[in-house]
Automatic annotation (TrEMBL):
UniProt source species: Streptomyces castrisilvae
Entry's transmembrane regions: 38-58
Protein's name in the database: Integral membrane protein
Keywords: Membrane, Transmembrane, Transmembrane helix
Domain of life: Bacteria
Region span, Disordered: 66-87
Polar residues composition-biased segments: 78-87
């Protein structure tokens, strides 16, 4: 059993930040001459993607919880063993 729930939006944001760090390191080391627009686009596009993934995950979790609650509500009540029980 996992110790915490998986949050894919945070994973996407982390990967975007790692890509930005690698791009800046490559640019600083002289391996690559990247235009600033590339980093701005990667940053904004990556964060929007992380937001979208987070929103989709939230909607999926809410839908699953609603289905589970609906199934529990529709389930038959437990039988009693008191005087009203039929034999």
């Amino acid at each position: 059993m996992p110790r915490h729930e998986f949050r894919p939006g945070r994973a996407v944001a982390g990967l975007v930040m790692l890509a930005l760090a690698a791009g800046y390191a490559g640019d600083a080391a002289g391996f690559w001459d990247a235009p600033p627009e590339f980093f701005i686009g990667l940053f904004t596009g990556g964060l929007w993607t992380a937001l979208l993934v987070t929103w989709i995950g939230y909607r999926i979790r809410r839908r699953r919880a609603a289905r589970k609650a609906s199934r529990e509500k529709d389930a038959a009540p437990p039988s009693s063993s008191g005087s009203q029980a039929t034999r």
